[in-house]
Specification:
- Residues 39-107 form the DNA mimic protein DMP19 C-terminal domain.
- It comes from Deinococcus hopiensis KR-140.
- The protein has helices at residues 15-24, 33-38, 42-67, 74-81, 86-103, 110-133.
- By secondary structure, the protein is an all-alpha fold.
- It has one domain (12-139).
- It is globular, with a radius of gyration of 15 Å.
């Protein structure tokens, strides 16, 4: 796909996003991220984590996602994307590179995270389409 071309996708209509948003309506005020995630089933937990990542990266990049405490499960999220399609595999690769960047002993490289954020933005909606195709029917 030409990197200058983007499909017009309303991600809010995709099953994986609807699942995440339904779950988030059940988050109680003052409930911590880990506490909330722990009470969700695996498909829902991963959908919520993917949605949080998408929201954070699109508004402030991977640096914001990390600074706000959402990057704790980067490796798990990368594994969730693997094998679900071309765009999902690319997101998984981006997430592995984000993880390596965040683990650098000198601290995160902000220019590297910015480049990865821009790379993610180009394919994120298409990856959500692929994630939705692999969501168990019971969760749609």
């Amino acid at each position: 796909m030409d990197q200058n071309f983007r499909l017009l996708i309303d991600v809010h209509e995709l099953p994986v996003v609807r699942l995440a948003l339904r779950a988030l309506r059940g988050k109680t005020r003052g409930e911590g991220l880990e506490e909330f995630l722990a009470r969700l089933n695996e498909d829902t937990r991963l959908a919520v984590m993917a949605w949080w990542m998408d929201d954070q990266v699109k508004s402030g990049g991977f640096a914001q996602w990390h600074a706000n405490g959402y990057s704790r499960h980067t490796s798990l999220l990368a594994a969730y994307y693997v094998g679900k399609g071309l765009f999902c595999d690319r997101v998984a690769n981006i997430l592995r590179r984000v993880h390596w960047n965040l683990q650098d002993e000198d601290g995160p490289d902000s220019s590297g995270l910015l480049a990865l954020s821009q790379e993610y933005f180009l394919i994120s909606d298409e990856a959500f389409v692929e994630l939705s195709r692999h969501l168990p029917q019971a969760n749609q």
